Amino acid sequence: DLRKQARQLENELDLKLVSFSKLCTSYSSTRDGRRDRYSSDTTPLLNGSSQDRMFETMAVEIEQLLGKLTGINDKMAEYTNSAGVPSLNAALMHTLQRHRDILQDYTHEFHKTKANFLAIRERENLLGSVRKDIESYKSGSGVNNRRTELFLKEHEHLRNSDRLIEETISIAMATKENMTSQRGMLKSIQSKMNTLANRFPAVNSLIQRINLRKRRDSLILGGVIGICTILLLLYAFH
User: Fold this and answer.
1) 123 partner at 20 to 30 Å CA-CA among 30, 99, 138, 178?
2) How far apart are CA 148 and CA 44, in angstroms?
């Protein structure tokens, strides 16, 4: 009996969810089609009060059916846990799990469809308020609208002028930075050239000193060798 009741509720839920999904789809397509057909900003949106009432009614009915099916599943769980059905316990647990999975799928589908519908309705309400603001702006006096347009244009011109001035200042700052970096590079090159110019005379003087020492050492060595030779000759003839 519990399984029959569960199947009946599941069939009803299936039909209700299909109708509920069609309602959400028709709501979205109707709004999109109306916006595509009529390009005028003064065209009113489709009155969705009847669809909203149908949505609320179907949502309440589906929630009631989900509650009933949850109660039937709880009763089946109590029956499987009761004593006296040990031989059929595995099969009953499998059946109970299948009904629980179906309930979970229906619940998830319901909440997903409901969330989509609420998102679409919220978007349409926002677009409706924007359209009303546009209509109220266009329905104002021509003089005020003209003044507002002139003020907006003047404000846009001022913003463009500020943007051009900022770009010019940025270019000038970049040019200044480049010139400063080039001046630093020229200074470093000049210092290196001065260093090299100062080093070459020092190298020349150092080479001259080395040559002078080499000559002096050669003379000293020659003198020492000559003296030693003379002494050897004197010692040999003596």
Assistant:
1) 138
2) 25
